[in-house]
Amino acid sequence: MWPWEHLAFGYLTFSAYSRLRNGRPPRSDAVVVLGVATQLPDLVDKPLAWTLSILPSGHSLAHSLLTALPLSAVALVLAHRARRTDIGVAFTIGYLSHLAGDVIYPVAVGKETSFGFLLWPLVSIPPDRSTFGFVARFRKYFENYLTYLNDPEIQSYLGLELGLLLGVFFLWLLDGMPGIPRKITRHVPVIGR
Fold first, then answer.
1. CA distance 186 to 190
2. pLDDT tens across 138-152, in order?
């Protein structure tokens, strides 16, 4: 998944949780934590694998449940102690939604999915090494993505993705644009206020 897809999937999940659990939209500080957590596995694994060659793949250490579950547990405990359980839940939902998205995405685009990275290093994963650095690798993936967007066989997926992104954007507006400082949003008419 691309960063915006991880963010949208995580926000949709957390907003639904917040509304069902608390009867209100998520708080801004929790949404900021959620946003960081939805990107965290890639922010750790991609540079360590693609630039420094420390990890075997861009889906290894931070994408493993052996890392994600203990980190999520620590976040939940610390947030509970601070009487801000929503922050711990935001972190956990953001982090775990990233992993779920990386399992679901290949299926959505008609590719074979892999679960091995979820148990790295207990399960070996194919090395993701090349002579490309981080920027060159990202550019290559993005160029492939743009080519992929022109594939007529994938149009239904693109419609689903666009629907998800627009739906989440309108949900975020309805929620009062959490994560944006009030000074900025004070004069913006919002559906949810």
1. 9
2. 888 888 777 777 777
Beta carbons of 128 and 59 less than 8 angstroms apart? yes
Residue 29 lies inside a defined structural domain of this protein: yes
Model-level pTM greater than 0.85?
yes
CA 91/CA 193 separation, integer angstroms:
26
193 lies in a domain?
no
Structure tokens at 145: 């993505």
- Other Cβ atoms closer than 10 A to 107: 10
- Quote the domain boundaries for residue 64: 3-185
68 belongs to a structural domain = yes
Helices (H), 47-181: 65-81, 85-108, 134-149, 155-174
What the block records as the tokens of 126 is 């194919």
